Amino acid sequence: MSDPTATLTGFGRALRDEGLSVGTGRIAGFCRAAALLAPDDLYWAGRATLLARPADVPVYDRVFVTYFGDVETQTGTQVRLSVQVQEREVDLALASPIELLREKSFDRCSPEELAELAALMARLPLSVPPRRTRRRAPARRGAPDLRRTLRRSFRTGGEPLERTWRARRRRPRRLVFMLDVSGSMTDYSRALLMFAHAVLRGDRRWEVFCFGTRLTRVTRALATADLDEALRRAAAEVVDWNGGTRIGESLKLFLDDFGHPGIARGAVVVICSDGLEVGDPELLAEQMARLSRLAHRVVWLNPLKGDPAYEPLARGMQAALGHVDVFASGHNLASLEAVATAFGRV
What is the DSSP secondary structure assignment for residue 255, as one 8-state letter? Predict the structure, then answer.
């Protein structure tokens, strides 16, 4: 017998292929209902959980009969079939759609699925490597703290019997996102901006920039907790959305105006771009060299790398790769989770 969970999930995909708005949440609800109801009620379980409008019923009926095959229609409404889902498979039915969504490329996600991904991104653990600050704090080891040692010696008649120490404090490094919003990145820009919005919740010092033919700082626009409002504000500020790509010029502007003054110094800089540069690749290579000397680490996320057959043949990508510490895809949630884990190790 085939896997019931895969059968039910496949039916939801078949409805989506026919143009119905069937997201992962609806499929998960369908799996729950099918696990709790009798097999005779599977048709109605799907009707109740998978459809958003009465106008979708004819398409649903046609796909249902085509997909399951062995059905009997009674009085024009009731449908029976021989698919059985046992209660012990309820947990699998709930987990499977989420796992499928984690592995699904952003360019194939529906608006409903992107909304579900936003909720998952908000719970994504992010570990950023620490750095030592100039300030010092009491510690068990480190440099002798002469002032505190002398102060405590007053308790013992001036004898420094209790020595104290201090060490430089540690705090997470700054994280800087640079998101390519040009036309070639249209299918991924929204999801990556959602990821940046979720990341900003971790530290107020972190920054987000968008670039296409120009550079735009969107940190304040994304500062609001409401995702839809944050994306609306960012879209209003980024005037070159879906335009051309001038990575080298945008990177030079970032380094001149923000990088050297302090934002990129010792930071982990994440560039999200497919590397399809229309400007001078020599300029890009020069600015990437500047960035690599200034930042702690440079991470480049290229959604095209999610294809096993991908090769970095674009001029911009070839110019930048020699100055990149981590090169990953970032084309789905699973790859972003891997990158978030790698932050703590770079």
Answer: I
Of residues 340, 328, 262, the one with CA closest to residue 294: 262
Q: CA separation (Å) from 168 to 35, 133, 134, 141? A: 57, 6, 6, 11
Instruction: Tokens for 338, please give them.
Output: 């891997």
Residue 108's contacts (CB-CB under 8 Å, 6 or more residues apart) are none
Query: What is the separation, in whole angstroms, between the first and last Cα of the chain?
Result: 47
Give the pLDDT confidence of 25-36 residue by residue, as tens digits. Answer: 788 888 888 877
pLDDT tens-digit readout, 291-310: 999 999 999 999 999 888 89
Is the CB of residue 36 less than 8 Å from the CB of residue 87? yes
CA atoms of 159 and 154, how far apart (whole Å) = 7
| Alpha carbons 88 and 172: distance in angstroms, whole number | 44
Query: What is the reported pTM?
Result: 0.66
